[in-house]
Amino acid sequence: MATERHTGLVIENNGENPKVKLGEDAEVDEGVTLGYPASRSQYRILIIGARAKIRSGTIVYWGSTIGCNLETGHNVVIREENNLGNNVRIWTNSIIDYGCRIGDNVKIHSNVYIPQFTTIEDEVFIGPGVCLANDIHPGCPKAVECMAGPLIKKGAQIGINATILPRITIGEYAVVGSGSVVTADVPSGAVVYGNPARVYNRIENIVCLNGLIDKPYSHLQWRLKSADSLSRP
To answer: CATH 2.160.10.10: which residues of the chain?
Structure first.
C-alpha cells in the first residue's frame, strides 16, 4: 500500500466537488477520501493543517477545519461542519458526526461514536468503545431542535465502553470508569463509575495498584488546582 507525502498541497476539484487544503508534510494512504460531499452543508471546503497522517479507509467530509498533526487510524469518518484543534488523534473505526467542537491534544480511541453537537475540550482522553448520545427523546418530532451532545471539559478521562447521555457535562480532569452509564453531570476532579454512574472518589485519592507510581493522576490534580486558582478573583 502506497503512502503519498504532500507538501503544502491544495487539491481543487471541478464541478460540484469541494476544495481541499492540505497542509505541509501530510502523509495520506491510498484509499483515503478527503472532501466527501455533504448534502446538508453549504461549506464546500476542507482545511487540514500541517503534518497530518491519514490512514487508509478514512473519509473526511467537506466543510470542516482541522488543525495540525491530525492522525487517524483506519476507517475513521469525520463529518462536515466540525472544528478540530491541533494534535487530535482518532483511532480505527471511530466516527465524528457533524457540528462538533474538539480541542487540542485530544485522543479518541477505536470504535468511538461522537454525535452531532458535542463539545470536547483540550487534553481529553476517550477510551475504546465509548458512545456519546445527543437525543433526549428519540423519535420525537422536535428532537432535532433540542439535540445536543455532552460537554466534556478539559483533561477529562473517559474509560472503555462508557456511555454518556445527551447534554451531560463531564467536569475538568474528571475520570469516568469503564462501562459506566453517565446520566448526570460529573464534578471536576471526581471519579465516577457504575450504572448509573455515581461519584465514589476524587482523582487525588487514587493510588497505583501496580506500584509503578504513587498517584497516577497527580498530574491532573496539579492542573486542576492551577485552573481553580486562576478562576478565583
So the answer is: 1-99, 119-233
The Cα–Cα gap between 1 and 76 comes to 18
For the ranges 48-57, 108-117, 169-178, 202-211, the lowest mean pLDDT is seen at: 202-211
H helix intervals, 73-148: none
Nearest residue to 68 via CA among 53, 86, 88, 83: 86
* Residue 74 annotated as catalytic: no
Could you give the 3-state DSSP secondary structure of residue 144?
helix
Confirm if 208 and 194 have CB atoms less than 8 A apart: no
* DSSP classification of residue 171: P
3-state DSSP: the chain helix, strand, coil percent, rounded to 5? 10, 35, 60
Q: What is the CATH number of domain 1-99?
A: 2.160.10.10
CATH homologous superfamily for 119-233?
Hexapeptide repeat proteins (2.160.10.10)
Please answer whether residues 160 and 129 qualify as being in contact, where contact means their C-beta atoms are separated by less than 8 angstroms: yes
pLDDT band (50, 70, 90) for residue 221: confident
Pinpoint the alpha helices (H) of the chain: 218-231
- Give CA angle at 192 (187, 94), nearest 5°: 95
Q: What pLDDT digit, counting tens, does each position of 196-212 carry?
A: 999 999 999 999 989 89
Whether 8 has a pLDDT exceeding 90, the answer reads: no
* 233: pLDDT strictly greater than 90: no
Q: Can you tell me whether residue 33 is helix, strand or coil?
A: strand
Question: Which listed residue (6, 74, 109, 137) is catalytic?
Answer: 137
What are the residues facing 181 on neighbouring strands? 163
